[in-house]
Amino acid sequence: MTTYAITGTTGKFGQAALKTLVSLVPASDIIALARNTEKAAAIVPTGVSVRKGDYTDQVSLTASLQGVDKLLFISSQPGAEVSREQQHANVVAAAKDAGVKYIAYTSFPDTPHATTPLALDHAFTEQAIIDAGITHSFLRNNWYLENELSTIDGSIAGNPFVYAAGDGKAGWSLESNYAEAAAKVLANDQPKDIYEFSGNLITYADLADAVKSVSGKEFEVISTDDQSYTNGLKAAGLDDDTAELVTMFQTLIHDGNLNVPSTDLADILGRPLNSVADELKSII
Asked: Where do the NmrA-like domain residues begin and end (predicted)?
């Protein structure tokens, strides 16, 4: 019997991954890890066990990972009181101490060659897993389509569709697709070491056209520079740090960090990828 565990199971990604995993392996073989175990217990599928999973507490993580063979390690969000690097180091150390045999980790596209600072924590974590000697799959996820919802919803409401990524391409796909793929890799008996998961690569101009087509709305599309983009975010009420972070997303796309061609997502899902227009229909 193989025992599976998924971290962050009260989050959207974790919930979607858990939903797929219970369709692939017995629920009794699955452990859901979460900081808030009461919340997790109320929402996990019947038969799934719940254990404490706090990235800032290595001791409790080690205890919770006892008996786990295969772990889906969902990366945490940056900007917390405890750095993401430290949180991830705790998870890897706990997994090693608990004897976890395999980790599937949600990482960043083409991490070794990424030029954005946002990839640094992921590069650190990949190396930590390698150094721990744990068999692994790095799930290098491209961009969630939902990341663009504020821009999409705003344009449908009549505001300009503004971006600063130029002709840079991203592989937007629904978060649920990435989560489903992660669960399928976890359940796979012979997974690859690296998966470059991505939707079809398109530009922001292409995305804007798709939004117009699906919504039936017309709106102005504005390609601008980083500074003007940042100023616009601040004028809309974002604080300086958040505005700089959101602009960094534009910069990394402009610089080609998400332009990583791959068929891995379609291959693991076992079906052709939907067009971005079709995926938009489920979120707008």
From this structure: 5-233
Q: Is 270 left (phi over 0), alpha (psi -120 to 50) or beta?
A: left
Distance of CA 214 to the CA centre of its chain: 25
What is the distance between the terminal CA atoms of the chain, rounded to a whole angstrom?
42
* Lookup: tokens for 262: 């791959």
Tokens of 180: 């489903």
Give the confidence band of 78 by pLDDT, cuts at 50, 70, 90. confident
The set of residues, in sequence order, having a beta carbon less than 8 Å from that of 282 and lying 6+ positions away, is 174
Mean per-residue pLDDT, 19-42: 98
Distance CA 116, CA 105 (A): 19
DSSP class of residue 173 equals: B
> So where are the chain's domains?
4-141, 143-172+198-259+271-284
**For the structural domain made of 143-172+198-259+271-284, what CATH number should be given?**
3.90.25.10
